[in-house]
Specification:
The protein is mainly alpha-helical and 456 residues long. The protein contains 19 helices and 8 strands. A 3-stranded antiparallel sheet has the order 3-4-5. Strands 6-7-8 form a 3-stranded antiparallel sheet. Strand 3 (300-301) and strand 4 (308-313) form a beta hairpin. Helix 3 packs across helix 4 and helix 3 packs parallel to helix 5. The longest helix has 24 residues, at 70-93.
Length: 456
């Protein structure tokens, strides 16, 4: 314990429980050991959790914290929480040390509520080392200018560069790219298929090509890093490619009959209590996903009008625009008093959990061994998907395989308009099956259909 090394060899022979009992004989030494092991995880720039700390000390982790000695459990939780506070400051500030052309893998953290999200850029995925080096310098420049980098942009550029390297082995540096290479690249991207067999969208192709265009502009400009050991391009051959009206390439969606959405209201009681509350908030407010998930404990306010209350929230998407015109962070809308009452009751019942988590957010995930982070959207979407699958089975008797295809791409999102609407994206196969009265065996030209429900 004095050396700060793992006790896995000891716990494998004596057992975890016996090892902990021996460690508790010297409380002060145990506290120091927990701090050292937690600090070792931070030094590796990895997020700490109960599981990570336990696995760094012992050869395995018991299935629940309740199985550990109460005194040890309390000390473990204290060490994890103290290290999380350190990581929130240290990891974000340390992003600048990660962003360097001499590292092949960047681990960048950004705050999301009271937790950190990891953005990982693996430049080894770019096959040609010379092109990889130029891309690194460009993303270093982006980080210096904006303070962050965009992983989707990196993924799009990576795909285009690797495709170009495969079809044009003579391209060693960006300066070697010609107009002919670009024409061939665009054709290759249009012929490419995703894992599900669908072609790349024109929007994604444009994003990939325009990403390389911006890299080329950087390499030609005066902002180019003097350490780049590659020839400077004289012209930008990507200027020959222009993508117009990309939004028109999106396939228009059709409206599924009203009774499909009405089934959600009929089966609303099957949702867990918290998801039912989220569902009602989306139905009655029209707020965006993030705006509901990041509601705080003081979000309910009284109103001068009867039967309604005020809901205070942060409009994250328009926050910068609000700051430019001198408005505050918070915005307020009216919600029915019964919804406000249920939300207030949830806030009261959740007070102890928030105190343990050290946060003011009222909706959080509850994964064992991890910090109680802001709630994830996937379980809620999965719940809605299950209800729609059940409804489709009882209504159409098409069989499990067809139903799975019908609900494969269900996504829940909320659109803010004057008359609040709930948009639920489900597979287009449902509409096709209802028209044809037979299973659809081949792929359809329209991927998704839009279910729109109007609320009074």
């Amino acid at each position: 314990m004095l050396t700060g090394h793992s006790l896995s060899k000891i716990s494998r022979c004596a057992g975890v429980v016996a090892t902990i009992e021996y460690m508790l004989k010297d409380i002060r030494l145990l506290e120091t050991y927990l701090q050292r092991m937690a600090s070792a995880i931070t030094q590796k720039r990895e997020q700490i959790s109960h599981s990570a700390l336990l696995l760094s000390m012992f050869h395995y982790e018991m299935s629940s914290l309740s199985l550990y000695d109460p005194a040890f459990k309390e000390m473990l939780l204290k060490a994890v929480e103290q290290e999380r506070i350190i990581q929130r400051k240290l990891f974000v500030a340390g992003n600048s040390t990660e962003v360097t052309p001499y590292r092949d893998v960047w681990k960048l953290y950004e705050p999301y509520g009271n937790v950190l999200r990891l953005k990982r850029l693996d430049f080894t995925a770019i096959k040609r080392p010379s092109l990889r080096s130029e891309v690194k310098y460009y993303f270093c420049y982006l980080f210096e200018q904006r303070g962050k980098v965009y992983v989707p942009l990196f993924d799009a550029c990576k795909l285009a560069i690797n495709t170009l390297a495969d079809i044009a082995p003579e391209v060693i540096y960006f300066a070697d790219i010609t107009e002919g290479h670009i024409r061939t690249l665009v054709l290759a991207l249009e012929a490419m298929r995703k894992n599900d067999g669908e072609p790349l969208s024109q929007y994604y192709i444009a994003k990939s090509v325009n990403g390389l265009k911006r890299i080329m502009c950087y390499l030609m400009s005066t902002e180019r890093d003097t350490q780049i050991r590659a020839p400077r391009p004289r012209t930008n051959p990507f200027d020959i490619v222009t993508f117009h009206n990309l939004r028109q390439f999106n396939t228009p969606t059709e409206i599924i009959p009203e009774e499909v959405v009405e089934q959600l209201d009929l089966h609303r009681e099957e949702m867990p209590c918290q998801y039912r509350l989220l569902y009602d908030l989306f139905m009655n407010t029209g707020l965006r996903l993030k705006e509901v998930y990041l509601l705080e404990e003081d979000c309910i306010e009284e109103s001068r009008y009867p039967n309604v209350c005020q809901l205070k929230y942060i409009p994250h998407k328009t926050l910068s625009a609000r700051h430019r015109r001198g408005a505050g962070d918070y915005h307020r809308i009216m919600i029915p008093k019964d919804i406000a009452g249920r939300l207030s009751q949830h806030i009261i019942e959740d007070a102890e959990e928030r105190k343990i988590a050290g946060t003011s957010y009222i909706f959080r995930s509850r994964r064992y061994g991890y910090e109680r982070a802001v709630i994830d959207s996937q379980p809620f979407v999965k719940c809605i998907r299950g209800i729609i699958r059940k409804t489709f089975i009882s209504d159409f008797k098409q069989g499990a395989a067809i139903v799975d295809r019908m609900v494969a791409n269900i996504t829940l999102s909320v659109h803010r308009q004057i008359n609040c609407r709930l948009f639920i994206v489900v597979s287009h196969l449902h509409l096709q099956n209802k028209k044809r009265k037979a299973p659809v065996t081949g792929p359809t030209s329209v991927d998704n259909a839009l279910v729109v429900k109007h609320f009074a």
